[in-house]
């Protein structure tokens, strides 16, 4: 640990606050190992149980994690970890960011003449009826029916839905490997997480059943474009998951369909197999991250709790943003551009998938912006690929069990470069290993 930062405190709350302060300031950097419980207790002149309690508080808030023999260390990302713009070295191809290609996003400025930008008033705030009508038709075309509302993006919907149905300390079952932003949100909000292994067709039913039997009160799954693997729930898998959920009354299910308009594979709806459910479709991937809107379908009680709590808090999602979504959804040119983007993303991901298969490396990605490649040593693989001119993401941020892997983003990958990237990945990945 850095000699520049000394943990202080005589009570668990004070020790936890001191560590949190160090994380917030950057003096305790992500990955930094904290002193063993007994050593820190001796240094501070307190009982080991006091330090153990402080560490437990920090784990519950998602600031630190425990890795067995590796001890307790600062999480790679928490609500208090300083973050900045991702910088890829000059001359290195960005296969790490996992964001939509700006060249494939619609020009929102072209929609401005059709967007209502009046100041509005507090009395008429809330979801725009015209937007809800459009969403209702779009959802119904995919077999999704429920009460509708609008949130400020997918993570906002997750947080509000879980707060409406769970208590801090409750366990949420999530995919393994999983979307790191969602997992970090859960930990920072005080929830416990239970991993559910997946394959290319989505979460494994037996794994989900085991997690629910062990006490998980909620389950979050991704319909299509799963991050980091690119998996998509198949019809057969959806049916099996629905059977599991039907046997577990009271479980709250959140289904994330962020890849909707861009997807080249159909939706196989799962969430409404539960009595308490929420289906979330954000617009950030097809229309741009600055359009912070998500359409939500849910059972009547969940929808009422989410919208009611919003009304006495920040009120509603900006009507201007909602009108931008209306304009985008009703513009034929934008619709054609989004359809084109979906085909391009599929071509880019497919090119890398096929190039990796030529090396005997099977990956699951059939939708979305990423593929997941199992490796023998992810740190060595990331460094080797960087030296070869490619920036990829290490798998640690996405895995609960420490499975070695790398996430390769295909969002901006020229298909002509897929073979060269696959060659470099094959050389860097080491002996083949099962995906999970």
TrEMBL record:
<dbReference type="InterPro" id="IPR051446">
    <property type="entry name" value="HTH_trans_reg/aminotransferase"/>
</dbReference>
<keyword id="KW-0805">Transcription regulation</keyword>
<dbReference type="InterPro" id="IPR036388">
    <property type="entry name" value="WH-like_DNA-bd_sf"/>
</dbReference>
<dbReference type="InterPro" id="IPR000524">
    <property type="entry name" value="Tscrpt_reg_HTH_GntR"/>
</dbReference>
<dbReference type="InterPro" id="IPR015421">
    <property type="entry name" value="PyrdxlP-dep_Trfase_major"/>
</dbReference>
<dbReference type="Pfam" id="PF00392">
    <property type="entry name" value="GntR"/>
</dbReference>
<dbReference type="InterPro" id="IPR004839">
    <property type="entry name" value="Aminotransferase_I/II_large"/>
</dbReference>
<dbReference type="InterPro" id="IPR015424">
    <property type="entry name" value="PyrdxlP-dep_Trfase"/>
</dbReference>
<keyword id="KW-0032">Aminotransferase</keyword>
<keyword id="KW-0808">Transferase</keyword>
<dbReference type="GO" id="GO:0008483">
    <property type="term" value="F:transaminase activity"/>
</dbReference>
<protein>
    <submittedName>
        <fullName>Aminotransferase class I/II-fold pyridoxal phosphate-dependent enzyme</fullName>
    </submittedName>
</protein>
<keyword id="KW-0663">Pyridoxal phosphate</keyword>
<dbReference type="Pfam" id="PF00155">
    <property type="entry name" value="Aminotran_1_2"/>
</dbReference>
<feature type="domain" description="HTH gntR-type">
    <location>
        <begin position="9"/>
        <end position="77"/>
    </location>
</feature>
<comment type="similarity">
    <text>In the C-terminal section; belongs to the class-I pyridoxal-phosphate-dependent aminotransferase family.</text>
</comment>
<keyword id="KW-0804">Transcription</keyword>
<dbReference type="InterPro" id="IPR036390">
    <property type="entry name" value="WH_DNA-bd_sf"/>
</dbReference>
<keyword id="KW-0238">DNA-binding</keyword>
